[in-house]
């Protein structure tokens, strides 16, 4: 897809960290987040990345959504990209959610916003919407982790067993969660760290086939050359399996009332095969789920135009 010109910076190369101004704010004591903020004065829209991503995964969405009338806020989560690694050692959903609330509400001054997220970022915005009542007006999710609702899923005829597909793809999850130090020790050079992360954009079949050119993979993996930031990213998995203490209990065991639009990229080999059916249980006020052909785990990059139009339509009355 041709790279649209950033109307605010005059940059035509979207495979450049300089395509957008990056700001850094201390949002909570000892927590510094880097973020892009474009379209200031529009309706606040928070875009949250997952793993192994940074704010760069949204580079194809920022300028079009700002042009549509949104104030687009795109952070690096704690421990990712240009954000700091807090001394408190927390990498759990609640810590991320409180960071983002502090950024949008306290630093940028927005009492409400809408959110878009997938993977880890989808989990973070779900926690954010439940933890701060009324703060998230609407949310858009795709290829995201979903809450643990064993009773509700079983009542809907869904299995609580891990599917063979997910189990086969979960070796990375086990190592990053239970052997993070050992894995980090093996990835002992910038080249090895980037090659490890590059698998998730290619051979591990998370994305749609051919969705990322070599130069695009290089752009996405560059922030993970840092040993400290790659290791910090593993903390999100350690938190999930109980190997690392959490700041507080996640809002991860309840059905959400936040109005939610769900998309699904079917070329994803790591998200639950019954993702769409689970979403019908997890969200009371649901639009979709809608299948997006030629998309996988990285739908915001793979089908950027479609996502931009869909988000704009879903939030049109807010504009």
TrEMBL record:
<feature type="domain" description="AB hydrolase-1">
    <location>
        <begin position="43"/>
        <end position="303"/>
    </location>
</feature>
<dbReference type="InterPro" id="IPR000073">
    <property type="entry name" value="AB_hydrolase_1"/>
</dbReference>
<protein>
    <submittedName>
        <fullName>Alpha/beta hydrolase</fullName>
    </submittedName>
</protein>
<dbReference type="InterPro" id="IPR000639">
    <property type="entry name" value="Epox_hydrolase-like"/>
</dbReference>
<dbReference type="Pfam" id="PF00561">
    <property type="entry name" value="Abhydrolase_1"/>
</dbReference>
<dbReference type="GO" id="GO:0016787">
    <property type="term" value="F:hydrolase activity"/>
</dbReference>
<keyword id="KW-0378">Hydrolase</keyword>
<dbReference type="InterPro" id="IPR029058">
    <property type="entry name" value="AB_hydrolase_fold"/>
</dbReference>
